[in-house]
Amino acid sequence: MLSTIRTNKLLTTMLPKIVFVLGAPGSGKGTQCQNIVKEFGFDHLSAGDLLRAERQTPGSPDGELIEQHIKEGKIVPVEITCRLIEKAMNVSKNDKFLIDGFPRNEDNLIGWNKQMSEKVQLLFVLFFECDEKTCTERCLSRGAAGSGRSDDNIESLKKRFQTYQNDTLPIINLYDEQGLVKRIDANGSPSAVFDLVKVVFNDVLSKGDN
Question: pTM above 0.70?
Answer without folding.
Answer: yes
